[in-house]
What we know:
Helix content: 10-25%
Low-confidence stretches: 1-6
CATH class of the largest domain: Mainly Beta
Distance between the termini: 61 Å
Amino acid sequence: MSIASPESSAPPQVGATLQSLRQAQGLSLDELSRRAGVSKSMLSQIERNQANPTVAVVWRLANALRVDMAELLGGEKTAAPTIQTVPAHATPLLATPDGLCSLRILGPIELAGQFEWYELSMQPGGALESAAHEPGSREHLSVLSGHVEVTASGTSRQLQSGETARYAVDGPHAIRNTGKTVATALLVVLHA
């Protein structure tokens, strides 16, 4: 049995590693705080080595940064798996207030606001109405089943299964299920 030296018994100083990982991903303290569910003031204290995070906080930060806990604690960086999978139950789902439309968020969170893709499911009569996105933004809607109507830039088009619509979304726009059955589609949003 060996006795640990005082240097090795000190808690790891994760501040510099946390700051480096956060900055490498282009995240502000506010954004990392939102993703990890850790207060901005706590993050700031950790980065300045004024506070040592609990295991639960390290776990939340590692998940938010998509790194192993060992890397955040200053250990070796582990190679990312060749193929990453996301179980169906871990795919976030958004629904309209009336429950007639749902969006499964298929894209990774780090691309949100740049490039997003969703699986859209709409009950008959369901509508997904959106405010304007940034100037130059576009949507690509590929209908997998059912019938939908797309309205953008003051124009409406009917789409059937197998058809794709591409349109500007820098003004109010909407997708409506005009059929009598559930409609499904893939929706890709390219932000300018």
